[in-house]
Amino acid sequence: MSFEDRIGSLRLKHQSLEDELRTETHRPSPDDNTIARLKREKLKLKDEITRLEQQVPA
Predict the structure, then answer these.
(1) What distances in angstroms separate CA 16 from CA 20, 40, 54, 56, one per listed residue?
(2) How far is residue 39 CA from its own chain's centroid?
(3) Which of 10, 34, 37, 38 could bridge across to 21 with cysteines, CB 3.0–4.6 Å?
(4) Per-residue pLDDT tens for 12-52?
(5) How far apart are CA 11 and CA 31, in angstroms?
(6) What domain count does the chain have?
(7) What is the CA radius of gyration of the chain?
(8) Which structural domain range is residue 14 located in?
(9) Looking at residue 3, what is its pLDDT?
(10) In Å, how far from its chain's centre is CA 30?
(11) What is the pLDDT of residue 58?
C-alpha cells in the first residue's frame, strides 16, 4: 500500500468519525464519553495523516 493509499484510507476513517460525532452531538441526550472517544480517535488519525504526509516523497 502506497503512502497516498494509506493517507486516503485514513482520511475516509477520519470523515466517518466526523459523521459519527455529528450524529452523536445532535442526539437528544448525547453521550459525553462517546463524544470524547470519537474526538480522541479523530485526533489520532489526524496526527497519523500529518506524519505520513511529511514522509511522502515530493
Answers:
(1) 6, 14, 23, 24
(2) 8
(3) 38
(4) 999 999 999 999 999 999 999 999 999 999 999 999 999 99
(5) 24
(6) 1
(7) 14
(8) 3-55
(9) 79
(10) 19
(11) 65
- 1: cell is 500500500
In this structure, how many other beta carbons lie within 10 angstroms of the beta carbon of residue 17? 20
Compute, in degrees rounded to 10, the torsion defined by CA atoms 16, 17, 21, 27: 50
Task: Write down the pLDDT at residue 1.
Answer: 75
To the question of pTM greater than 0.85 for the whole model, the response is yes
Question: Which residue matches cell numbers 494509506?
Answer: 6
pLDDT at 12: 97
Amino acid, single-letter form, for residue 21? L
Residue 38, classified by CB atoms within 10 Å of its CB into exposed (0-12), middle (13-18) or buried (19+), is buried
